[in-house]
Write a structure and sequence with these properties.
The protein is an alpha+beta fold. The chain has 10 helices and 14 strands. The strands form 3 sheets. Strands 1-5-6-10-9-8-7 form a 7-stranded mixed β-sheet. Strand 8 (about 185-195) and strand 9 (about 200-210) form a beta hairpin. Bound molecules: phenylalanine.
Length: about 375
């Protein structure tokens, strides 16, 4: 457990390191991962008829800031680098925020087609679809001139679109898809794929043509290619009808027993939802206040009993210009009924932490 002056990894997050849901048999995250591996194994073969894409799913989550940011041309002042957004182990190491952190080392090794699945970590808001740990899969394909009709970004894009549309349809069925312009520092052009599923447009993955400066850094200027990153929880939630991201971390058999390897067509049947408990907390925001700091503290104290943290009221004092915010914390267990006493105690711990550690002035 890192504890130096530059570390901001709470125990509750560090506990998740090594859980590796993407390696756990019959777990929904693992099921989606295997499905995607199989799609690639079927659709992309080498000259010997063997799967073209090599798969990696055991890279440890602590990476250097060079791997996570610099090698991917992330600007020095990019918000993603800030300790409000990223878990730092020490000044030079982070818990990876995306699987793209492994692109460059594999490209330098000379790999041309690979998939990397891993647990990723981000400081974020708290609601049914955000959790400080989640899983991503990265895919990268580099082409030699002889492998493309023309050695151009257009030809790469065409291959990317065909491959990823096929991938998404293999998961979600024959749904409407659309490509949307996006920005990532390490791809150009960059685009996101959205799918119309259960009545709304869902952002499924980020992708693009690998930036020539990334290829230069990796000494691979003889090739061009594409990369994509897909969030596995998001797919698993819509595909299996899982209403809350915390369920992926439960040990409750009533959840886990509903899934089996190789089966992506079953839907989660919710067991009875336990009642929520709401608690409000109001404080003056100090200068430089960042919501993620508050959310992290709540998560740290309440663990998986916190379902949602939302602002329900805010105002700015006319004379002092100070901002006051009222947050509503929703507590609910996925597994049992909560008692008033235990929630009162948690809420008291939140209040104490907020005033004494974060030094926010409670109202
Ligand atoms: N790493 C990006 C993210 O986490 C996704 C991505 C991967 C985009 C590869 C382009 C290419 O949002």
């Amino acid at each position: 457990m890192p504890s130096g002056p530059h570390s901001n990894v709470p125990a509750g997050v560090w506990d998740k390191v090594g859980r590796n849901l993407h390696l756990q048999r019959n777990h929904p995250i693992q099921i989606i991962k295997s499905h995607i591996y199989q799609y690639f194994a079927r659709s992309h073969k080498d000259m010997q008829g063997m799967p073209l894409f090599r798969t990696y799913d055991e890279f440890p989550p602590v990476v250097t800031t060079t791997q996570n940011f610099d090698d991917l041309l992330v600007p020095k002042d990019h918000p993603g680098r800030r300790p409000t957004d990223t878990f730092y182990v020490d000044q030079a190491h982070v818990l990876r925020t995306h699987t793209s952190a492994h692109q460059s080392e594999l490209l330098r090794r000379g790999e041309n087609a690979f998939l990397v699945t891993a647990d990723c970590y981000r400081r974020d808001e708290i609601d049914a679809s955000h959790y400080p740990v989640f899983h991503q899969m990265e895919g990268v394909r580099l082409f030699a001139p002889s492998e493309l009709a023309s050695f151009t970004a257009e030809a790469v894009l065409e291959d990317l679109k065909r491959t990823l549309e096929g991938l998404v349809r293999s998961l979600l069925g024959d749904v409407p898809l659309r490509w949307v312009d996006a920005y990532f520092p390490f791809t150009h052009p960059s685009l996101e794929l959205e799918a119309f599923f259960h009545g709304s447009w869902l952002e499924v993955l980020g992708s693009g043509v690998i930036h020539t400066d990334v290829l230069k850094l990796c000494d691979r200027t003889d090739r061009i290619g594409w990369a994509f990153g897909i969030g596995i929880e998001r797919i698993a939630m819509v595909l299996f009808d899982v209403p809350d991201i915390r369920l992926f971390w439960t040990q409750d058999k009533r959840f886990l027993e509903q899934f089996s390897d190789g089966n992506i067509s079953n839907r989660f049947k919710p067991f009875s939802k336990y009642p929520p408990v709401y608690k409000d907390i109001t404080f003056w925001c100090p200068p430089g206040f960042h919501e993620n700091d508050f959310c992290s503290a709540v998560r740290d104290i309440a663990g998986d009993l916190v379902e949602r943290v939302q602002v329900i009221d805010e105002f700015t004092h006319g004379k002092t210009g100070r901002q006051s915010r009222c947050y509503r914390i929703t507590y609910r267990s996925m597994e049992r009924s909560l008692t008033n006493t235990e929630i009162d105690e948690l809420q008291q711990n939140v209040r104490t932490h907020v005033s004494q550690e974060l030094r926010y002035e409670l109202r």
